[in-house]
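thoughts on these tokens:
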Amino acid sequence: MARPSQREVILDAFQDLIVEVGAANVTLDDAAARSGVSKGGLLYHFPSKSALFAGLCDRLAAAIDVTIRDAPTDL
């Protein structure tokens, strides 16, 4: 299995932190530390907390699209 991209690792960490401490309490420093990247590495992919949220929403929307695409149509 291919190793996840740094972007995906950051989004995974951000999602986990949101669940654990709430969206308002997650900082960029927390997300960088949890994902194992430097803050500069995080900012390269996501220049703000808002960009992290947008990235997470895009990923979730893509997962929903795949689920709908692959859903049985003969129910």
Notes: The longest helix spans residues 49-70. The chain has a mean pLDDT of 95. DSSP finds four helices and no strands in the chain. The CA atoms of residues 47 and 55 lie 11 Å apart.
